[in-house]
Predict the 3D structure of the following.
Amino acid sequence: MNRSESAAIWPQVRRLVVVGSGVWITFAAQLLITFIETVIVARLGADALAGVTIALSLYVASFLFSLGVVTAVTPLAATAYGKGDLEGVRNFGQQGVLVALMIATPLMVALFGAAGVFASMSAEYARFGAAAAYLTGAAPGLPLWTIYVAIRCFGIATGRVYVITGVMVAAIPIYTALAIVLTFGLGPIPKLGVFGSGLAYTLTALIIVTVTALILKYINLTPTSSILIWRPKAVRSERKEILSLGIPFAFRIVLREGVLPATTLIVAVFGADVIAAHAVASRLGEITSSIAFGISSAVNAEIGYMLGSNEHRQTRLPVLVGVALALIVSIIVSATVVVFSESIATLMLGNANAISITMALQVIPIAMLWFIVVALQAPLSGTLSAFKAAKFQLWTAAAGSWMLGIPIAYGLSRLASVPTAGAWIGLTLGELSITALFFWKVYHLISRHQLYAVTP
């Protein structure tokens, strides 16, 4: 690291923390809603929780694919912002919203189809009836959540993320109230069970998108508010760029992040208690990994801006700072979760589920090791995304997660005394392989001066 880079460390840390923390809080708030959902549904019994966990395996996979496509808005809009092309920034934001609808609507229809399949299996297994009911209530919210993500990616690219963050945080008590009332009933409102929990998720998404649009309309947050200044002529070139970059992103995210829902299906045969323990680890893994997502998004936007403003020789610094932040934060968070793991598991599952709690306590430390590996991977992923290395990430995720991680997870789940613990060991080994390859790729780019080239 040269002297100019050393002098720029703290300003770089500040920028990454400002953007990254905003993204993390937003993403963590969304995942906290699913955490609260787990706590509420667990009160309906093990079969209800198992059913919702199975349903979320499909819902999360659909959402991750939609999220992956619109994530392309961040580097594209950030590069345009670095160039000072505000019209291009607006166009990428608006086309991101249209792409969100294009991608998420067919997936919503597919979720309704899955609900029908689960309903046909409900006579034999109660958990599949619960899965069908949840998907019926939650599926309409998928396009709305994806639109919100598109707006959030636009805000990340322009460095205006905190208003969007505030809306998401404010939605937590709103969802909690809706979920409690619709799930358990109140006065004239009937008890809807797991369907009510899914419906609350959809209504919360509708409220979030509506409030965010109103805020951007009446509060001038240049250039973020420009997303509402619609032009009648469709800008197909920006839409094509988003799809060209976003679809490989989407498959990569589904392949890598989809291992958690896939692992749920692997351990589902061991019964409701094992699924419940896995649900605890999965929710914790999702919430904590949102920190990694924040760092990745911040590095992505920072490097994208540098490329647009022709500051190619400065792009190494965000990577180094991002890796250091990821390591420090992930260790602190993991240690905290492990220390309070018993309280967390009891809160999520309730005192009556003693067997599930015991299993969860054995799984949580492994899940936190998985999180540390994912956190180290995040700034490297953000760097590769900014340089549009989507195909490399796609094939690496396919090899590491599905050709290595999932097979090992399947095998160890059949050998371990706690099946879900063995599965998490397999997932961690898969992520280690991906992280190693990402390190190699970034180092390779730096050593060949591709990161310092005049053009990316």
Summary: Residues 3-447 form one domain.
